[in-house]
Each structure stands twice: as structure tokens, then as C-alpha cells.
Predict the structure.
Amino acid sequence: MFWADKLLESVKGPQVINDAWTPSGIVHMGGLKGPVIHDTLFKILKGKGHEVKFTFGFDDMDAIDGLPQELTKTHGKYLGIPICNAPAPHGQGSFREYYSSTMRDLFKDLDIKADIYLASEYYRKGIYNKAIQFVLDNADGVRKVYADMYKKEISKDWYPLQVVCPNCGKVGTTEVNDWDGKEVTYICRKDKVEWAQGCGGSGKISPFDGNATMPFKVEWAAKWWTFGVTIEGAGKDHASSGGTYDVARKLVKDVFGVEPPLAIPYEFFLYDGHKMSSSKGLGLTGEKLLEVLSAQIARFLMIKTPPNQAVEFNPHQTLIIPKLYDDYQKAAAEKEGDFARALELSQIGEVEKIPSVRFSVLAQWVQMPNTEEEIKKAGAQKWAKYAKVWVEKYAPEEEKFEVQKKLPSQVDSLSSDQKKYLAALAEKLDVKNAEDFQTEIYELSKQLGIPSKDAFASIYICLLGKDHGPKAAWLILSLDKEFVKKRFEEASK
Ligand SMILES: [Zn+2]
């Protein structure tokens, strides 16, 4: 059974699925795995007739705790303040919208049907007031979970809350030390974190209506409790043993007294065995991924492997993308089984018609002239667009070729047998059918007693300037007959 069907097999009653992301940087292709997995579960449950909601939060009350190199000058002063209060990197708008608009677009492209909400709005509208009151009243319980999980003493004057400093606006630098049932006592520390400096101010303030935010793990548990979330997975960075996901799950159980959501820890995409990282330039952004994969195939990539397995995806100079297209075509032919189910769940709206040509062949066609008709016949116009991008940006050198406008200098390396072969082939170009012609090209080499490898190489050398290429018959037929005839004659002299 497909992993997602299995996971949801025993789920009963109405369901609330949630996922979240911090809008403070580019959207990595790995950042789409969570949204696609959750959306797939949403789709399955809806299909089974469950009452189900799917919400997705932009965690914009988090402090800005790091910046891309190009922003360190202009945005250094915003380190420590909540994302929702910083201006956009360039020109108009907010920091949050600058980054989250990309995610919103990707959601549209991938048909992810989540209701998006902003954490800052939940805080400002008082939706989290009850949870804030609860964690402050039960601070001891939170301390105990922290102490258990981290095996260290948590001081009695530590409270699970950080106020947005009314003086300097930073949230990453503050601590709450007391709670009287109405107001918290806070201090904004100069040296609390390395990446931002607080103002040193202190005072009392109401913790409600957006004045403060709960620490990440506490907020996670509070969210599950407030909205009755029943399903929420987490990527490996949070879901490792004893990590934030475990802490949040223990908090919701021990402090709030409710069951944690269905656990779905998921692994990363790897790039040559390493975790993809935008800061190290390893891997692809979500936008780049959708330049070379259709939305359906991108979704297929995210779910075809069970989430507890890492997926290697270095597309540069490899055949990983053509292979993915091959897998997708195979899944379409299978009709049943895990791959077929993954394909079914990857569809957007109408079921996509699968082209009859392999992606690797399509990648050759897009490099040849006059192949539009062939591409159309194979129903591959949409995939041809992706094949072009693949050839331009990712394909290994041996997959690329270009018909040379002039006789390439490499023809000097042709043997007299190869020249003889080309001269003979020049007289046999009156053909229509590529399959038959391919056989004929091969037969001719046998007739002339020249190894077929040398025969084919001679064709490629005089047309492409290299000793290998796409299927010769298709290549020749894609070109103007007179041009080929003349080229073969020239080369055979
Ligand atoms: Zn301050």
C-alpha cells in the first residue's frame, strides 16, 4: 500500500492538517516537500469523505536571526526584530511579503490548497491570548518538559514567552522573568544572543494581543491545542530524536493535556549526499525546479519515495531529471501499485496526458531543427519546454549537440572507409520512415564491411563535429535533405 494511504488508514473523524514556514529567505526545493506531503494527505482524506481542514502558517513573529550576505549592510539593524515588522530587502513592501510572495506563487503553481495564515495576525487578534495565559500560568510544566528533554535545570524565573521590546522593537533579545496574572516583567538583554543586541530596557507589559510571542516549540504545541491540529509532520532538522518536534509533542501532551498530532517526520533532499543548502548554493530553489519539471512531476518527486527516506537530487551534469520523467511514464503505464498511486495523487485538475516519447529523446529533438511536427505528434509540446531547459542548464556535455553550419574540422580524422561510407549514404537519402532508415544506415555499414560504430561516428562527426549523438536516422531526417547530401559529399572528399 502507498505510504500515505497506510499512514491514514486508521484515521477517524474530522481532521485538521497544519504546516508552517518562516518567510525569511528563498524557498528551497526541499521547502516544498512539507507543503506537498501535507497537501497530499489533505487530498486523500477529502477523497475518503473526511471533514478536513488544511492550514499553513507563515511564522512571521519569529525574530530575523540571520541575513543573506547582500542584506547585511541594509538590514543588519533589523536583526532581532520580528519578521513582520521589517521592510522589504529592495524597495517597497514588507520583509515578510517579499519572501512569502514566492511561496504563495509556488503554492498556486503546485495546486497546494492550504488556507494561509500569518502568525502575527493570530497574535494581534488575540487568537493566541488563551494559550499565552495558559503557558504563563503553567510555566512550571513547560520548565519541567524542557528540563526532561534537555537534561538541565530550568530556572524558576524563566517564562515561556518573549515580548517585543516596546523600546527597541526586538523580540530575539528579550526575556520574561515574572508574571502577575495581568502583566509580565521583561528585560531586553544586550548579550542574550550573538546575532542581535538588545537595548537593555526593562519593565512590565501585557503579554497579549501581539505584544509577545511564545518560543518556537511552545508556540507549536499551543497551535495544536488552540486549533485541534490532528496531523502535522516535520522535516528532519526539527524531527530528529530530542529535537524541537519531540519537545513540542511532549509539551502538548504533558502541559496542555491533549494528544499530539499524527507524527510524520520526513527526510531531506540530498545533493551528492549532502543536505541541500541555499547558503552553500547546493541544490535548487522551488522556482528553478519548476522551470524544468511540470508541477505534476515536481509533486510526484516529493511523494513517490516514503518520507522517511532521503532522496538524492543533484540535477547538474546528471541524468536524474530524464530518469524522473521515465519513472513518471512508467508509473502512468502501471495502472496500480505505489508509483501509480503517487502519480494519481500528483495530478492537478484533469489527469495529464503522458507524451509517448521518452524525455531523453525529446531532449534530442529539441536540439534538432524541424522537429515541431514530431513533438506535436508525440503530445510532448509541454514537456519539450522542460527538455529545452534541461539541455541548456543541466544536461551533461555528451547529451548536448548542435548541427554545424559549416563542415567541421573534425572530418580530417575520418578514415578512407568512413569517407566511402558517407559517399554511399549520400545516395540513399530518399526515405520517409525513420525506423526503416535507421536499419538501412546499419545495413549499409555491413555491406561495405565497416564497423557500425565507425559508420555512425562518421555521420556524427560531419554533422555535429563530435563522434556521438542522437539516433542517426532521426537526426538526418530532421535536417534539410540537400544540406545533408552536400555535407556527406563534402566530407567524403
Ligand atoms: Zn529593547
In short: Residues 165, 167-168, 170, 188, 198-199, 201 surround zinc ion (CB under 6 Å). The longest helix spans residues 95-110.
